[in-house]
Amino acid sequence: EDEQIVAEIMGRRFFPDLIAYKTWEGFHFAGHEIRITEATDCYGAVVWPSALVLCYFLETNSKQCNLVDKKVIEIGAGTGLVSIVASLLGAFVTATDLPELLGNLQYNVLQNTKQKCKHQPCVKELSWGIDLEKNFPRSSCHFDYIMAADVVYHHPFLDELLLTFDHLCKNDTVILWAMKFRLENENRFVDRFQTLFDLEMIFSFPSLNIALYKAMRKDKMKA
């Protein structure tokens, strides 16, 4: 079953027939052809398999996870694929990442959502752990969903990442988080994450070494 679903997920990807002046990959999600422009000079400008897993879940579980008119923030949005799919499924999306990635992110989001979505998504800078209250004040920012794909890897900002999850997450916010396990860093972060949040694995793909989690603040998931 794992290999069958993985084949279906990876089958959503297609490539240009001809070499173009810009490097791009194509994807079929939410009834649309999505073209993602990539850059090969940084991690945040490439589509990783965890993003495809999360997009597949959003599309195939639209009743369980109805995004219509919901407020969604994606942290570490990278090329923007997850934010684009969430927008096409009816959400009001804020796609965030580091300042140096915003140009490519804005380009992809605009090219793939303009006049196609109920709510036009916005792109905003979010450097984990920095100026959170200034840029995303707790009193006025409420998100129904926080989405993240492959944000935990070999980098020194795991404390800031946990702080960002904590700041953005209200009592009724649902976190959907797809992660590829590569190094011990991932396991240690999951342990620390669970001090603040209840964590439930909703998909596991051993052949990709990727898990998809749902999380809420402690004791809120059962309620």
UniProtKB/TrEMBL annotation:
One of its GO terms (biological process) is methylation. Keywords: Methyltransferase, S-adenosyl-L-methionine, Transferase. GO terms for molecular function: methyltransferase activity. The keyword Membrane does not apply. It holds the Pfam family Methyltransf_16. This is MT21E methyltransferase.
